[in-house]
């Protein structure tokens, strides 16, 4: 399963990770070898009735009612301290549009 | 009295008898950590731990009951958040991250007055099998410092083996507790999926991740697991099943139990010295009345392929949150999109990028069915097959890893070669069952060899007693010879 440069660039775009030209060749080789290995799953056939969304360890959905969880000022400050850019107690980002 | 290589029970007894204080213990470990910086096991030391130890000594002087884990110095893998104590996940992305909260398991340790010495090194975002993917330098194996300690919980295993703490908490997604435990001659446990809360674990593969103890004995691992396990409202994948008191059942009778050795574990890559030690373990079990039968489980040949599709897929989803906005490093950029791409290019190391891209591929349109969906169905098929095995047998026995520790730099050129060292461990994560690794022999170059036992879901008591009996029979001194 060989990847080409166009596919690699597309994957990098989807994953939102810049790849330098220097990294490209090495990544191409490594990803192709990994994908070739996992291709071996195609050799096995799974019976029709095996469903892909059944959870291997039986878990059921856990629900609860929505709750408003008030936050302390100390916690708010600690959370804001983690953020990249803060202005007026709000997290600032570049414009989306 | 000597404070060397204390067990959890040693600490409990020592504190009760006033042989030593918590402060003396902590000072002992801090001094040792300082002496052994070449191992590079620790990333961050808890600057408050001495103060906390002194405060605990006062509580104890006033009659505080000393339970297991009280006053016991522990190292926490840096993929687990600790409030107000820097947590990096071994990545540049989180080089300055100070979590505002504790993981549930950390809260439980603190409730029992455990003393957190600091955060230990790991492969970046728990991705790796040698601790060579850490942005903060590799960890060295205390038994032979030219060799890797294993990964991704390399710092944890090295710290426990080198007596830089009494125990450590690591995380295991494809073998990341068991494999380093095996390479470093210590005990490592991956609990059943859902046994220990993942709240506060920086997510790598949400359907495989489990935190587990890395200790110097099976008994210690039992004490730790019974303390950190339990239902958690904050992690809806935790089980409501009660936590068994594993430490009280270690000496339960194992005669009559039936183990199987899958033929697939005797593959070409299995090193003769590991095979020999496995055969020794089998003989010992047979002498204790445990039968070991060889069994053919063809689907086991596909476990790595299943793992290396599902895991990267979930990694690509879990690491999407690192965009430089709410936490983590922020790269300079002109636009929002450029910001994402630059932040992630600068913050993530090569293995993280690789797995992200593989995951993106297997989830993308046109490939999703052939890869991801197929892997999920193969996973289900594996689970059905193993359910049938558990009907007739009590567990799997096998080597933890195909070889003992490899040299630093030996496998860093080809990712696939590195992945192959997980061949015996990933199965347990894929089907969510508990597994333990314990040291059973010495190999060449002073490097230890580990044995792995895998049992059915929520059967940790049985798994622990199987391990404990073998440990007692072997009476192996696993301590590093060269420290």
UniProtKB/TrEMBL annotation, chain A:
<dbReference type="InterPro" id="IPR036113">
    <property type="entry name" value="Asp/Glu-ADT_sf_sub_c"/>
</dbReference>
<dbReference type="Pfam" id="PF02686">
    <property type="entry name" value="GatC"/>
</dbReference>
<protein>
    <submittedName>
        <fullName>Asp-tRNA(Asn)/Glu-tRNA(Gln) amidotransferase GatCAB subunit C</fullName>
    </submittedName>
</protein>
<keyword id="KW-0808">Transferase</keyword>
<dbReference type="InterPro" id="IPR003837">
    <property type="entry name" value="GatC"/>
</dbReference>
<dbReference type="GO" id="GO:0016740">
    <property type="term" value="F:transferase activity"/>
</dbReference>
<dbReference type="GO" id="GO:0006450">
    <property type="term" value="P:regulation of translational fidelity"/>
</dbReference>
Automatic annotation (TrEMBL), chain B:
<keyword id="KW-0648">Protein biosynthesis</keyword>
<feature type="active site" description="Acyl-ester intermediate">
    <location>
        <position position="176"/>
    </location>
</feature>
<feature type="active site" description="Charge relay system">
    <location>
        <position position="152"/>
    </location>
</feature>
<dbReference type="InterPro" id="IPR023631">
    <property type="entry name" value="Amidase_dom"/>
</dbReference>
<feature type="domain" description="Amidase">
    <location>
        <begin position="24"/>
        <end position="462"/>
    </location>
</feature>
<dbReference type="GO" id="GO:0050567">
    <property type="term" value="F:glutaminyl-tRNA synthase (glutamine-hydrolyzing) activity"/>
</dbReference>
<comment type="subunit">
    <text>Heterotrimer of A, B and C subunits.</text>
</comment>
<dbReference type="GO" id="GO:0030956">
    <property type="term" value="C:glutamyl-tRNA(Gln) amidotransferase complex"/>
</dbReference>
<dbReference type="GO" id="GO:0016740">
    <property type="term" value="F:transferase activity"/>
</dbReference>
<keyword id="KW-0808">Transferase</keyword>
<dbReference type="InterPro" id="IPR036928">
    <property type="entry name" value="AS_sf"/>
</dbReference>
<comment type="function">
    <text>Allows the formation of correctly charged Gln-tRNA(Gln) through the transamidation of misacylated Glu-tRNA(Gln) in organisms which lack glutaminyl-tRNA synthetase. The reaction takes place in the presence of glutamine and ATP through an activated gamma-phospho-Glu-tRNA(Gln).</text>
</comment>
<protein>
    <recommendedName>
        <fullName>Glutamyl-tRNA(Gln) amidotransferase subunit A</fullName>
        <ecNumber>6.3.5.7</ecNumber>
    </recommendedName>
</protein>
<dbReference type="InterPro" id="IPR004412">
    <property type="entry name" value="GatA"/>
</dbReference>
<dbReference type="GO" id="GO:0006412">
    <property type="term" value="P:translation"/>
</dbReference>
<comment type="similarity">
    <text>Belongs to the amidase family. GatA subfamily.</text>
</comment>
<dbReference type="GO" id="GO:0005524">
    <property type="term" value="F:ATP binding"/>
</dbReference>
<dbReference type="Pfam" id="PF01425">
    <property type="entry name" value="Amidase"/>
</dbReference>
<keyword id="KW-0067">ATP-binding</keyword>
<keyword id="KW-0436">Ligase</keyword>
<dbReference type="InterPro" id="IPR020556">
    <property type="entry name" value="Amidase_CS"/>
</dbReference>
<keyword id="KW-0547">Nucleotide-binding</keyword>
């Amino acid at each position: 399963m060989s990847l080409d440069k166009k596919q690699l660039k597309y994957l990098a775009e989807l994953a939102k990770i810049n790849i330098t030209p220097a990294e490209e060749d090495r990544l191409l080789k490594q990803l192709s070898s990994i994908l070739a290995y996992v291709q071996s799953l195609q050799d096995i056939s799974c019976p029709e009735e095996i469903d892909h969304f059944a959870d291997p360890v039986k878990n059921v959905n856990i629900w609860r009612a929505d709750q408003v969880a008030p936050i302390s000022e100390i916690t708010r400050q600690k959370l804001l301290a983690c953020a990249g850019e803060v202005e007026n107690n709000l997290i600032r980002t570049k414009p989306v549009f | 009295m000597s404070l060397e290589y204390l067990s959890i029970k040693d600490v409990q007894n020592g504190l009760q008898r006033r042989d030593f204080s918590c402060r003396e213990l902590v000072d002992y470990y801090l001094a040792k950590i300082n002496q052994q910086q070449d191992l590079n096991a620790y990333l961050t030391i808890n600057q408050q731990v001495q103060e906390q130890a002194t405060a605990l000594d006062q509580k104890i002087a006033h009659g505080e009951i000393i339970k297991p884990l009280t006053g016991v110095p522990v190292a926490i893998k840096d993929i687990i958040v600790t409030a107000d104590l820097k947590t990096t996940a071994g990545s540049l992305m989180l080089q300055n991250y100070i979590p505002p909260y504790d993981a549930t398991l950390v809260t439980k340790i603190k409730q029992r007055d455990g003393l957190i010495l600091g955060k230990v090194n790991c492969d970046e975002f728990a991705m790796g099998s040698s601790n060579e993917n850490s942005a903060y330098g590799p960890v060295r194996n205390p038994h032979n410092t030219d060799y890797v300690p294993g990964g991704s919980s390399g710092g944890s295993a090295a710290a426990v083996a080198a007596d830089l703490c009494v125990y450590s908490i690591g995380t295991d997604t494809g073998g990341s507790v068991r494999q380093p435990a095996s390479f470093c001659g210590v005990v490592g446990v991956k609990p059943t999926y859902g046994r220990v809360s993942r709240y506060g674990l920086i997510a790598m593969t949400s359907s495989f991740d489990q935190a587990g103890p890395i200790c110097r004995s099976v008994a210690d691992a039992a004490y730790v697991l019974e303390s950190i396990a339990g239902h958690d409202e904050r992690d809806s994948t935790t089980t409501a099943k009660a936590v068994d008191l594993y430490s009280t059942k270690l000496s339960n009778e194992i005669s009559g139990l039936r183990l199987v050795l899958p033929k697939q574990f005797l593959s070409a890559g299995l090193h003769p010295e590991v095979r020999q030690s496995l055969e020794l373990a089998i003989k010992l079990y047979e002498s204790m009345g445990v039968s070991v039968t060889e069994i053919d489980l063809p689907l086991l040949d596909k476990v790595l392929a299943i793992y290396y599709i599902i895991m990267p897929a979930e990694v690509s989803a879990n690491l999407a949150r690192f965009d430089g906005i709410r936490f983590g490093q922020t790269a300079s950029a002109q636009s929002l999109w450029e910001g994402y791409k630059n932040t992630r290019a600068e913050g993530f190391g090569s293995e993280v990028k690789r797995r992200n891209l593989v995951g993106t591929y297997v989830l993308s349109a046109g490939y999703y069915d052939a890869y991801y969906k197929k892997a999920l169905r193969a996973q289900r098929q594996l689970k059905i097959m193993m359910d049938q095995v558990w009907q007739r047998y009590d567990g799997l026995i096998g080597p933890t890893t195909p070889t003992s520790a490899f040299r630093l730099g030996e496998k860093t050129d080809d990712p696939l070669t590195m992945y192959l060292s997980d061949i015996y461990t990933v199965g347990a994560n894929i089907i969510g069952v508990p597994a333990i690794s314990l040291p059973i022999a010495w190999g060449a170059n002073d490097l230890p060899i580990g044995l792995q036992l895998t049992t059915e879901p929520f059967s940790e008591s049985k798994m622990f007693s199987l391990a404990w009996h073998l440990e007692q029979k072997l009476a192996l001194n696993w301590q590093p010879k060269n420290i």
